[in-house]
Design brief:
- About 5% of the residues have low confidence.
- It is globular and about 40 Å long.
- The protein folds into 2 domains: about 140 residues, no CATH class; about 70 residues, no CATH class.
- With about 230 residues, it is mostly helical.
- It is about 80% helix and about 0% strand.
- Helix 1 runs parallel beside helix 3 and helix 3 crosses helix 8.
């Protein structure tokens, strides 16, 4: 994140948006950063990039239930929804590589058709996925870079900077809770909503305290950052 045409803060912004779902599918933080950097290099906004990558994670984790159009699209790639779901559970990075590299072999018109049938009609998502497909070679280069020992250290530094404000920490917490809700069955969603309501009440109290006692904000931010970075 120190070199190249990507902006480190933008990359961390995107990673913070996709981190919850990325963790659930077992994708390493460095690999999330490579996805983020690939899109940031062509100046796709963090919000659009985050939505597109999260959509990819979600769709692939439920690939066997996406319907006839998606199954036909997978078939064009010599794949199936069931295969992609199992591949994601086995090795999320390998599954992403398989999908993107297979789409890349198609002509441009067919690429858009496959992307649309799997990921939907959102223009931002289509643009982001097309960028990952056609920039696949660059994406592979960035994967090697972000997984080098030097780059792992720089990612940690940027995450520390990102987590210095309480608002950023609570945003990351919210993203993780949202990702968990996607994975839960409908039967458990009422419980999740109840827990989320409890979090909202607690957060309101914390926000009031931090407004009145600014020094406390620094203490909370530091402690939470250490906790987040200590997680595997």
């Amino acid at each position: 994140a120190d070199k190249g045409s990507s902006d480190a803060k933008n990359i961390v912004n995107i990673v913070s948006r996709i981190g919850g779902m990325g963790n659930l599918i077992g994708l390493q933080r460095e690999n999330m950063a490579a996805l983020a950097a690939t899109l940031d290099e062509v100046k796709i906004p963090a919000e659009v990039a985050g939505t597109a990558i999260s959509s990819m994670f979600t769709k692939l984790s439920t690939a066997d239930t996406l319907g006839a159009k998606a199954e036909e699209a997978f078939s064009q790639l010599g794949l199936s929804g069931e295969f992609m779901k199992k591949a994601l559970n086995r090795n999320s990075q390998e599954a992403i590589n398989i999908l993107l590299s297979r789409i890349k072999t198609l002509d441009k018109e067919s690429q858009i058709g496959v992307i649309t049938n799997i990921f939907g009609n959102d223009s931002g998502t289509i643009r982001a996925m097309a960028t990952l497909v056609n920039g696949y070679d660059r994406y592979q280069e960035l994967l090697k870079m972000t997984n080098s020992e030097e780059k792992k250290g720089s990612m940690d530094k940027e995450l520390i900077n990102k987590c210095e404000t309480t608002a950023s920490i609570l945003k990351i917490l919210g993203n993780n809770i949202s990702a968990l809700a996607i994975k839960f069955s409908d039967a458990l969603l009422p419980v999740v909503k109840l827990v989320a309501s409890g979090f909202s009440f607690v957060i309101d109290i914390v926000d009031t305290l931090l407004s009145k006692f600014p020094v406390l904000s620094t203490i909370v931010a530091t402690a939470t950052t250490v906790f987040l970075l200590a997680k595997p």
